Every structure is written in C-alpha cells, then in structure tokens.
Amino acid sequence: MRVVLAAPNSRAHTITPPLGLGYLAASLRQHGHEPAILDLAKRRQDAASGARAVRELRPELVGVSILSTAYEPARELIAAIKRELPGVPLVAGGPHITAMPRDALADLDVSLGVVGEAEAAFPDLVDRVAAGAGLDGLPSICRQEGGEVSCSERAAFPQDLDALPFPAWDLIDPRTYPDLPHQLLHQKFPVAPVMTSRGCPFDCNFCASTTLWGRGWRTRSSGNVVDEIELLVREYQVKEIHFEDDNFTLKASHAAAVCEEIIRRQLDIVWCTPNGVRIDSLSEDLVRLMKRSGCYGLAFGIESGSQAVLDRNKKKLDLDRVAAGIEMVKRHGIEAHGFFIIGLPGETVATIRETIDFARRVPLDRANFALLAPLPGSDIFQEYVLDRGNGQKIDYSAFNYFTPFPLGELDAAMLNKWQRRAVYSFYLRPRPLLNLARHARPGQVKEIFKALIHYST
Length: 457
What we know:
Layout (H helix, E strand, L loop, with lengths): L1 E6 L11 H12 L3 E6 H4 L3 H10 L4 E5 L5 H14 L5 E4 L1 H5 L1 H8 L3 E3 L6 H11 L9 E5 L2 E4 L39 E4 L2 E2 L10 H5 L4 E2 L2 H15 L3 E4 L8 H13 L5 E8 L6 H9 L2 E9 L3 H6 L6 H13 L3 E8 L6 H13 L4 E6 L7 H8 L25 H16 L2 H10 L5 H12 L1
Parallel strand pairs: 1-2, 1-3, 3-4, 4-5, 8-11, 11-12, 12-13, 13-14, 14-15
Antiparallel strand pairs: 5-6, 6-7, 9-10
Helix pairs in contact: 3-4, 9-10, 10-11, 14-16
C-alpha cells in the first residue's frame, strides 16, 4: 500500500526530523509497503495545505502522529485530511494516542489508532487493511465503532532494539531541514537526532515517559548505534549528532561503549544531549571520554532549585550533587544546559526564587524555564486533570510550556510573571548573553526572538 505518514505543524520553535515516523516508514518497507513522510512543521504548513499535500501523494492509507503539545494542530490536520480524502483509512498514533486512546479517538472521530512503540503493530495493521482482512487478534490496536472505542491488549515492549531497521533517513533527510534543531543552538550542520535507548526506571510525577516507553530500560548495542551514525555521516554529510534518549547515561558502560566506538572509527562529528541526561549518573572518567568522542554540550533535567519541590514531585535528585556535577562538566570544557519547571505541585514564590538563585549560582551556560505542562500519561495529569476534572472536556490547547496550569497559591498571572522573571534574571547577564551571541546562527535569530515574545506575552 501507499502509506503517507504525517506530522502536524505546531508552535514549537525547533524543527527536527521525526524519528518515530522514520522508524515506522522503515518498518513498512520491510513489509513491502511504500511509505512517504509529510512533516508539516518542516515547511510551516497549515492543516489545509498539508491535507492537499497528502492528497497529491495519492495514499491508500494515512497515519497521523500526535503529540499532546500539538493536539489542536493534529485535530485540524485530521479534519482536513478527512475532507480531502473521505474514503481513505486514517490511523492515529504517537504519544497522545498512547496515553489517551479512547478519549482521543472519540474526540477526533478517527476509527483506528495504534498505541505504544508501533514498529510491529502498525505494519501488521497495514498488512490486514491491504488484504481486506479484519483486525481481530492484533495487539496495540484501538478501534472506534458507533462512538464506542475498544482497544486490544498492548504488545510487549520490543527488547532487541538492534533488530529494528534504521529510520528511513532518505525520507527525513537532515540536510533538508531548517537550521532549527532541538534546543536551537548547535555547533555544526547538518544535525541528526539519534536514540540509543528506550524506557526509564524513574517515576517523576510530571513525566509521561514510563507510559510511553515503560519502566524497563532497553539499549541498542554500541556497534548498532555507531553504524547508524556512520551512515548519517557518509550518506547525508551529518556533522553533529543529538542523542535524544531520556537516559543516555543511565548505565555508564552503555554511554562509554558508544563513545569508545565513535573514537575507534575516528568519526569527525560533535554531539550533545538536548533532551537531557541525569547529572548524578556522570563520573569524571565518563565525562572525560565523552569529551574525547566529540561531546560539547550536556543538558540536565534539574527541574527546581528547591529540594522540597523536587522531593514532592518524586524527582530523586540531590541539588548538592547537581551543583558538583555541573562544576565537573565545566572543568572538562563541556557546556551545561539546565531545564527547570515553574509551577510544579508544592511551588510557591519562595521556591521559585530558590530556582532562580540556583540557576544563577551554578555555572550553567543556558537554562530553560518552562511552565508546567500536565502531560497525558503523567501522574500530575492523572491527579490534577482526570481525577479532579469531573469528566469535563479537556482543553489540550493549553498543554504547552508557556500557558499556565495553576496549582496551589500561584495563579496564572503570577506564573507568567515569574517565568518571565526567571528568564530575564538568568539571561540578562554578560556570560549567558555572550554565550547566546556566540552560538546563534543567522537563521535562528527569528525563532529566538519569537521565543522571547512567548515569554513576554
């Protein structure tokens, strides 16, 4: 079958090749199907023009990947595709469908959904549709009929990640993407995202990772990872790698093996971890090896400068170790980037001040101060949206990192005010400003300016 995999546009300031769709496309090819990928964010296409582009590809089936933070653009895209191609089967998938399959399929009026890691389930579904066969017995499939949504048992998480094909990089060629990779700033171009592991054993209550990937931590072999990197360098002239794992350094031996393999093959690349690593998983030896293999930047999910807020939200992290870890990373000439969340349960004006003071005190090169987004699949979403929502319709348009989600004593205006204050307090200093000026490329200035406007409105 000719299958178009589509990702909607969003308000995100960064645009990266959609790895998930790349894996799905490669898996479809193994089943003999003909995939195409349409990434609306890449060209900043709206839903109407995106749907017309889908139609021009003459698909026999369409898949749409949905992030919770881009739910409204996905809704618009799906409605437009249904108008353009009323007789073509449409399947919804991605993180939002995995977390909220019944609610989403009913709300979107979509008949089919795939939950979880879909490299096996989605091609199996396409096989059945191509053969005109039923879907009974397939795992990880949700169906809506007559307003009722039913889901089969979710398939087990794949354990042998080396058995997965590499993403279909020819369909998401890094050279064709704008100079706006994850976290915007980088050293070289083209940039390609790579995942070396899946899953997370931690249970931070603001994170949905365990719902999406499970608690078990699964890795690719170092040889498999670096084979893909070598392919990207050779075939697509990639010069920088972004490791997008949730826990790249969770097991030091895994991260070390990847670094050693990069060094052994003498690959001329630089790399960083824009999705973050746990700073308490680092050692002097590992950081030294990372630097030798091309690492220039590490991001850390610190979340709060208040130990009480961290403990309240099950972030098992000691701020003294964080400070020492940042100092260690900086000693080895690696940039440090901190992620913070404003508005977690237990947050007060005093704890926000602690966060600002901590971010300024430690030698971070950059910092993100996001407002709490209650992501579906997280404990916070369950407690504060589902359990306290009394069955009311959920407005997902507010689920981003700039729209306040008030909890406790801080109202929306206060949260916006303190987010702005955190950003300006951190960046209106000589060293962070010089760091931004040194790394920003001409094509990124517009998006950096737009991000500042987001903080200011």
